[in-house]
Each structure stands twice: as structure tokens, then as C-alpha cells.
From TrEMBL:
<feature type="binding site">
    <location>
        <position position="106"/>
    </location>
    <ligand>
        <name>Zn(2+)</name>
    </ligand>
</feature>
<feature type="transmembrane region" description="Helical">
    <location>
        <begin position="28"/>
        <end position="48"/>
    </location>
</feature>
<comment type="similarity">
    <text>Belongs to the beta-class carbonic anhydrase family.</text>
</comment>
<keyword id="KW-0862">Zinc</keyword>
<keyword id="KW-0479">Metal-binding</keyword>
<keyword id="KW-0472">Membrane</keyword>
<feature type="binding site">
    <location>
        <position position="159"/>
    </location>
    <ligand>
        <name>Zn(2+)</name>
    </ligand>
</feature>
<feature type="binding site">
    <location>
        <position position="162"/>
    </location>
    <ligand>
        <name>Zn(2+)</name>
    </ligand>
</feature>
<dbReference type="GO" id="GO:0008270">
    <property type="term" value="F:zinc ion binding"/>
</dbReference>
<protein>
    <recommendedName>
        <fullName>carbonic anhydrase</fullName>
        <ecNumber>4.2.1.1</ecNumber>
    </recommendedName>
</protein>
<feature type="binding site">
    <location>
        <position position="108"/>
    </location>
    <ligand>
        <name>Zn(2+)</name>
    </ligand>
</feature>
<dbReference type="InterPro" id="IPR015892">
    <property type="entry name" value="Carbonic_anhydrase_CS"/>
</dbReference>
<dbReference type="InterPro" id="IPR036874">
    <property type="entry name" value="Carbonic_anhydrase_sf"/>
</dbReference>
<dbReference type="InterPro" id="IPR001765">
    <property type="entry name" value="Carbonic_anhydrase"/>
</dbReference>
<keyword id="KW-0456">Lyase</keyword>
<dbReference type="Pfam" id="PF00484">
    <property type="entry name" value="Pro_CA"/>
</dbReference>
<dbReference type="GO" id="GO:0004089">
    <property type="term" value="F:carbonate dehydratase activity"/>
</dbReference>
């Protein structure tokens, strides 16, 4: 620590220099105690409702799911449901948000959740990454959507022809390798591919569904907050698969 400080950096900032004067030993000790106390407080304190003038949704988990299904049915008929998107809605939401569904979806540009579920501004709390996998940031975001914003529904949304799942299939079937961190990114998908090899039909599609179901099933097992919400009847977690051609969303229970 002292060597780092003499060089104008700080161990807690990976050696990056501070803009202001460097603290002395007493200041470092007090700072460490303060950080420790804050960390303990953060662990002990329960999640509080989001501050704002927009009350949380009153939809039950089943009603939220029915609304998502109705929105997708309208999308398939090319008669999208009317969605609140204008200035009045923006001004209301400036005071807070009250979405009714958390979606963990793929980054694929062909799978925009608001469109395929007929949702408006502020209706969905969306986390997207290639392959709809869960890391710390994704799980924390989902917990925020449920525990703070009061969302009664979480949907893990896979889709037809997912490139991230296809890459995981190539690893399993042909021992493929990828540059950069793409290989690390698809590691969580490989167990779903392995499990899908015995499933009927095309391996890629079976792996897409298996990956969504497996991820959805892991959420409440990894998160006591989500598990408690499910036990209390305040939350439903579903897996889903979107068809690029037909626009249909198929729904699956978690595994």
C-alpha cells in the first residue's frame, strides 16, 4: 500500500492517481472502517421501494403473463396493442418507474421486447446480453426489478437461431474456439447444449429452449430474494422462445 501511495496511486483504485491530496495513514484507516461499515449496512438493510410518484404495478404474476401473451398475439396479427409512448407518458415516468415485467433477453437486434410484447414506455425492465445468460450484473438487475420496482413477472427470453447458442453448439460438436472473450461469454450455455443432445429435433433449437429454461430455473435458486417472492406468490419466473419468422413466443416452465 505504501509503495503504491508513494507513486501517487491508490490500491483501491488499481493504482490510479487521486485528483486531490493523498490521505495519511489515519485517513486510510478511517476510510477503511467507513467502507467496512457501509458494506455491512448494505448487507443488513432490506431493499426499499423505489422513490417516485409512480406506484408499483397492481398486476398479479398471472395477469402480467396474460398481458405479455396478449401483446405478442397482437404482434403476430400485425395489429399491435396501443402503447403509451408520448410526452404525457414521458413526463409521468420522469417521477419514477413501475414496470410489470423483467425480461432477460438476447442482444439480437431482431428481438426487441417492447415491440413483440406490445409494451409501452416504462412497461418492461429489460436486461440484454448475447445468449440471455446470468452474471452478477444481470442477477442484481433482476433483483432490483423485483425487489425494488415490484415486478411480478420475470421472463428469460431465448430466440430462434441464437448466435451465442450456435457458438456454444460449435464448441460442443466441433471443439471450436473464439477470439477475445466470446469463448468465456458462452461458457454458461454449454451445459444446456450438452443436455440438448438427447432431445428430439434440431440441436440448436433444443439448446435455445434448454438454455432459457435452465437460466430461468437458476434465478430463484441463486437468489433468496427471488425465492422468497415466489414462495409468497408475488413472482412468477418463466422461460420463453421467440420465433423470428412467425413472431410467436412459446412459453415454458423452468427446470
Amino acid at each position: 500500500m505504501d509503495d503504491v501511495m508513494r507513486q501517487g496511486g491508490c490500491a483501491c483504485c488499481d493504482g490510479a492517481p487521486h485528483a486531490g491530496p493523498r490521505p495519511g495513514r489515519r485517513g486510510l484507516a478511517i476510510g477503511a472502517l467507513t467502507i467496512g461499515a457501509l458494506a455491512c449496512a448494505a448487507v443488513a438493510l432490506p431493499l426499499a421501494p423505489a422513490v417516485g410518484r409512480v406506484p408499483a404495478t397492481t398486476l398479479t404474476p398471472d395477469r402480467a403473463l396474460a398481458r405479455m401473451q396478449a401483446g405478442n398475439a397482437a404482434w403476430r396479427r400485425d395489429t399491435p396493442m396501443p402503447a403509451s409512448m408520448g410526452r404525457d407518458r414521458r413526463e409521468v415516468l420522469a417521477g419514477g418507474q413501475a414496470p410489470y415485467c423483467v425480461i432477460l433477453g438476447c442482444s439480437d437486434s431482431r428481438v426487441p421486447p417492447e415491440l413483440l410484447f406490445g409494451a409501452g414506455l416504462g412497461d418492461l425492465f429489460i436486461i440484454r446480453n448475447a445468449g440471455n445468460t446470468v452474471d452478477t450484473a444481470a442477477l442484481g438487475s433482476i433483483e432490483y426489478g423485483v425487489g425494488v420496482l415490484g415486478c411480478p413477472l420475470v421472463v428469460v427470453l431465448g430466440h430462434e437461431g441464437c448466435g451465442a447458442v450456435a457458438a456454444a453448439v460449435e464448441v460442443v460438436e466441433h471443439n471450436a474456439s473464439y477470439e477475445g472473450v466470446i469463448g468465456d461469454m458462452i461458457l454458461p450455455i454449454i451445459p444446456a447444449v450438452l443436455a440438448a443432445r438427447d432431445a428430439p429435433g434440431a440441436l440448436l433449437d433444443a439448446a435455445v429452449i434448454g438454455n432459457a429454461r435452465r437460466t430461468a430455473g437458476r434465478l430463484h435458486r441463486q437468489s433468496p430474494l427471488l425465492e422468497e417472492a415466489m414462495r409468497g406468490g408475488r413472482l412468477k419466473i418463466m422461460a420463453a422462445r421467440y420465433d423470428l419468422n412467425e413472431g410467436n413466443v412459446a412459453w415454458f416452465e423452468t427446470v
